[in-house]
Amino acid sequence: MFIPAPRGKNPAVGGTQQRSRVWDPPQGIHAMTMRRRRRRSAAPRGGPAPGYCDVTRRYAAAVSLVDTICLIACTIVAVELRLLLPFFDPPTQIAEVVAPFGLIILAAWLAALWWRGAYDTGQMGSGAQEFVRVAQASMLTAGTLGITAYLFRYPLPRGFFVVLFAIGIPALILERIALRELLKALRRRGLFRRRVLLGGDEAHMLDLHTVLSRESWLGLDVVGTLPSGTLTRPEFVELPRFGSPAECLAAVRATRASLVIFAEGSFERASQFSLLARQLEHESAQLVVVPALTDISAQRMTVQSLAGVPLVFIERPRAREARAWLKRGFDIVGASMLLLLASPIMAATALAIRMGDGGPVIYQQRRVGMGGTTFEFLKFRSMVVDADALRVNLTASNEASGALFKIHHDPRITPVGRIIRRYSIDELPQLVNVLRGEMSLVGPRPALESEVSRYEEHVNRRLAVPPGLTGLWQVSGRSDLSWEDAVRLDLYYVDNWSFTSDVTILLRTLRAVLSRDGAY
């Protein structure tokens, strides 16, 4: 049972110690055993706790159902669009030809998604790996069906085949994105959440607790701790303590937690964790170990077992890959298309700025690019003409930390500027910088020379890749982030670059702009 700890003086917190909930193992086990005996017929050992099985597996089942509906809809749409395509041979009895093959396509596509791990509960809900697996499974399905139809000489219309996968793959990915956003919204409202136990030393547990409390969309509620030492932080005062990490089995049964996260300092020897894993074999709780690594993406880590010892191999940082031809080619194509699409908006913006105060439309400023080189940074002018001269008088009003300068209600911003900054329209001329090769679509934001001169040594790592029109910290809060968080996210991007991450950041940028998160 839970009993209040006796009051006393605690020099670590300065004064009378608050009441904290301490778990007495012998009494707790006895009380729990009596409760279990009273409801043995209703809940077997380990029990179907409201957690991992009831949340993530139900979500995976819901995703598979929506995938099925999406694929059926795409098949019907592909048949109808094929009838409208003029550049294929005229269709003959397309519905009769596709109908017998439709169930095979649906079954094969769903089987490929399952085989490639698109329904793996450990990958669903966060990260880009889920979308990568969906794309891989879809391409595998396309290749397999194409070869099968050729070998068996089945008259599958080429137009239908091309249209099906041209709309089916994006539809599946967009559907997964929509379901993920729905899941995050439900988690923020208190639904689809999981109970979590934290284990380890206080410092590492505090780091975990801070992240889980801040990122409510993860849906993880800390219901107890398994500290390897004493706890003095106020964050843990109201949380039940279940002794050391060795008491994990009793803690899981008492709290019906579905996730146990062990941080650094949980066990003195690796064999202790193996013993605990065996004890939890018949429980519904999932074990998670947080390695002593930070800001390293999962794509750079590979786990291998050597002589029974699991080793984590870390790839070298990927800053060099972020300067390769693939990224540059993507920048040229993407910037050209965006300039073409945004040209009406840019023309209207230029006219509004000129009519507003008669000043210049484009604002140019010297910024620092890759390797410390400088270039002329282009923006639509959103402030008064002498904004740089007025900045000296506003230094005391700076609301940002570190090398940044930000004022929420900057008096230098013009009425037109306030509108275009809200939707980041003022950044569109930087597409020209991208075409020149001075910037990239995605990367750390280009800094002023005065800001770079105040960089600490490790912050210069931001200059290892081309600066970007958007970046990881822009889609993670934009101006609301502190300087330290912005630097951490930029350095994470530099070291862990991938083409998939660039595409993901661009998609998240669209959402951040439309929602106006952190823009001022």
Layout of SSEs?
Elements: E1 2-4, E2 21-23, H1 25-38, H2 52-82, H3 94-115, H4 129-151, H5 158-188, E3 194-200, H6 202-214, E4 220-227, H7 248-255, E5 259-262, H8 270-279, E6 286-289, E7 301-306, E8 309-314, H9 325-357, E9 362-368, E10 374-380, H10 387-390, H11 415-422, H12 430-436, E11 440-442, E12 447-448, H13 449-452, E13 468-470, H14 483-495, H15 499-515
Parallel strand pairs: 3-4, 3-5, 5-6, 11-13
Antiparallel strand pairs: 1-2, 7-8, 9-10, 9-12
Helix pairs in contact: 2-3, 2-5, 3-4, 4-5, 9-11, 9-12
The overall number of domains is 3
Strand residue content: 5-15%
Chain-averaged pLDDT: 80
Distance between the termini: 52 Å
Judging from the principal axes of the Cα atoms, what is the shape?
Answer: globular
> What proportion of the residues is helical, as a percent range?
40-55%
Radius of gyration: 28 Å
Task: Give the SSE string.
Answer: EEHHHHHEHEHEHEEEHEEHHHEEHEHH
Q: What's the tally of helices?
A: 15
Query: Which residues form runs of ≥5 with pLDDT under 50?
Result: 1-53
Number of β-strand runs: 13
Structural class: alpha/beta
Q: Major sheet: size, sense and barrel closure?
A: 4 strands, parallel
Enumerate the strands of the largest sheet in spatial order, edge to edge or round the barrel. Answer: 4-3-5-6
Membrane topology: Multi-pass membrane protein
Transmembrane segments: 65-85, 97-119, 131-152, 158-179, 330-353
Subcellular location: Membrane
Pfam family, one: Bac_transf
